[in-house]
Design a protein that fits this description.
By secondary structure, this protein is mainly α. The protein contains one helix and no strands. The chain has one helix at 3-91.
């Protein structure tokens, strides 16, 4: 065989390999894109679920804080009532 014929066959085979490699890379990138899309949907679902859980917890925390402030206010009034007669008797 002539050297030119061998070189042409090698160039054709390398070109075919390059085209197949490019097609394979494109398919991998397409699959990676689909996987990233699915992961993004899962993260959105987790985010909405976490928000659905955190909102009631924040409300419960606010209610407990309100009760705590209410009890402090009641204790303040009770201690004010106890001190009022003593302070009147001390002034006399």
């Amino acid at each position: 065989m002539d050297i030119q014929t061998i070189l042409i066959i090698i160039i054709i085979l390398l070109s075919i390999n390059l085209v197949l490699l490019i097609v394979y890379v494109i398919l991998i990138l397409k699959e990676a894109r689909q996987t990233i899309y699915k992961v993004n949907r899962v993260l959105d679902t987790i985010s909405s679920a976490a928000e659905a859980v955190s909102n009631p917890i924040a409300s419960i925390t606010a209610i407990i804080a309100g009760f705590s402030q209410g009890f402090k206010l009641i204790n303040l009034f009770k201690s004010g009532d106890d001190n009022t007669p003593n302070s009147k008797s001390d002034k006399k």
